[in-house]
Amino acid sequence: MNVIIMGCSRVGGRLARLLDEEGHKVSVIDIDPFSFRWLPPTFKGSALMGNGLDEETLIKAGIENADVFISTTQGDNRNVMAAQIAKHIFNVPRVASRIYDPIREEMYNKLGIETISPTKMGADMLKSLIEE
């Protein structure tokens, strides 16, 4: 699979490593070159400095042949905008986005963007701990 990850934070870097180790072709985009420190020395994919909202950057990352696009930056708006670009302009078959705000996460999910909300997941997990 050809995977593009926007955002090389702890989550994006770990996801890139996991997918790379499984043999997928992985490209990671980030605006901060220091973020690529989260990629291990064994990473065989590509690390591209640039804005994941910019079509030229996305093309350099290989979005025209991408099977999956995942946005994992710290910004909900950037994540969902990049996901919309990947889905509607480049027709990437599978698009997912990390969204911190649970209300936005539900709305974007209804619009066809696969989402995950660490805020919602964390609260649900903590709640289950006190219910045991």
Describe the structure.
This protein is an alpha/beta fold and 132 residues long. The protein has helices spanning 10-21, 55-61, 76-89, 102-110, 118-131; strands spanning 2-6, 25-30, 46-49, 68-71, 94-98, 114-116. The protein has a six-stranded parallel sheet, sandwiched between helices.
Which key features would you list for this structure?
single chain, 132 residues, alpha/beta, Rossmann fold, six-stranded parallel β-sheet, 6 strands, 20% strand
Q: Overall mean pLDDT score?
A: 94
**Biggest beta sheet summary:** 6 strands, parallel
Instruction: Kindly report the name of the CATH homologous superfamily.
Output: NAD(P)-binding Rossmann-like Domain
Distance between the termini: 40 Å
Spatial order of strands in the largest sheet: 3-2-1-4-5-6
- What global shape is seen? globular
Named at the architecture level, the CATH assignment is 3-Layer(aba) Sandwich
Low-pLDDT windows of residues: none
| Element-level helix/strand string | EHEEHEHEHEH
Q: Gyration radius, to the nearest Å?
A: 15 Å
Topology-level CATH name? Rossmann fold
The portion of residues forming beta strands comes to: 15-25%
Secondary structural class:
alpha/beta
CATH class: Alpha Beta
User: How many structural domains?
Assistant: 1
Question: Can you give the helix content as a percent range?
Answer: 40-55%
